[in-house]
Amino acid sequence: QVQLVESGGGLVQAGGSLRLSCAASGRPFNIIDMGWYRQAPGKERELVAAITSAGWINYADSVKGRFTISRDNAKNTVYLLMNSLKPEDTDVYYCNARNSRLGFDYWGQGTQVTVSS
């Protein structure tokens, strides 16, 4: 099992920045593909950014050039630096940890990000 603890959400004005963190435990971090997703009420959860255990990165088109995902394997932590935030980035952000080959897929509890106009 993988435990995920998210932090860093909050309220920020449009144009501002936030950094989300997600600390993982329970499995060797260097075999885990990590991702950030977000979900608004009544909508499906959508991928924001992902980084594989090998370091391959993927972003949603809506955040390219503004958000940066990174991981620190020594600290078992993945980060999401969000710059130039927009009101439409307001959502609950969830950390995800998975390894398809080993067959596990875990979610964090979510952290609220609110961007005021």
Largest sheet: 7 strands, mixed
Sequence stretches where pLDDT stays below 50 over 5 or more residues? none
Tally of separate helices? 0
Residue share in β-strands: over 45%
Helicity level: under 10%
Structural class: mainly beta
Note the gap between the termini.
40 Å
Q: What's the rounded overall pLDDT mean?
A: 96
Keywords:
117 residues, mainly beta, 7-stranded mixed beta sheet, 11 strands, 0% helix, globular
Structure report:
It is built from no helices and eleven strands. The termini are far apart. By secondary structure, it is mainly β. Strands 2, 4, 5, 6, 9, 10 and 11 form a seven-stranded mixed beta sheet that branches. A four-stranded antiparallel beta sheet has the order 1-3-8-7, with no helix packed on it. It has strands at about 5, 10-15, 20-25, 35-40, 45-50, 55-60, 65-70, 75-80, 90-100, 105, 110-115. Strand 5 (about 45-50) and strand 6 form a beta hairpin.
List the helices and strands and how they pair.
Elements: E1 3-7, E2 10-13, E3 18-25, E4 33-39, E5 46-51, E6 57-59, E7 67-72, E8 77-82, E9 91-99, E10 104-107, E11 111-116
Parallel strand pairs: 2-11
Antiparallel strand pairs: 1-3, 3-8, 4-5, 4-9, 5-6, 7-8, 9-10, 9-11
